[in-house]
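ok so I'm stuck.
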Amino acid sequence: PLLREGFVDFAVAGAVQGALDADLELDPIGPIEMMVACRPSHPLAKATRWEDIVDAEWVVHRAPGSHHTVLFDRLRREGLPVPARIIETNSFGVSWGLVTRSDLLLILPQAFMSIEPYASQMVRVPLKMDLPALTLGILKLRAAPLSLAAGKLATLFQRYAR
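replied:
not stuck anymore, here's the structure
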């Protein structure tokens, strides 16, 4: 909303290529591989099949174009079940608190496995299926060119992230 309302010139964001609204564009920086995560003592921490975890409780971010929305749409197209027991939130802090203190599952970037304190508070569920990757990039309005200052800052973000 802040981008569309003109309060920010761009955002550094993860998005699913092809799932953005028509008024937005993403200048890609690189891929973000996704994973299913849970607390280390979760009963499904060693699950390898989607069928083993689909009936678990999930915390999801269901904004249009989010990785959860894209994954659930893909599962439906492939005739696979979609989680029904979900808690929706748009706050990573809330999601993290729920996952580390309960039996909820969460899909998040696999890079979290190399960042403390996250890496010591969760494990990757070793699914034998690919999840849709996100693309890290500079998200901006398609019809609004960046100002000189915003363009310079976006370039610095791109260089640093690469």
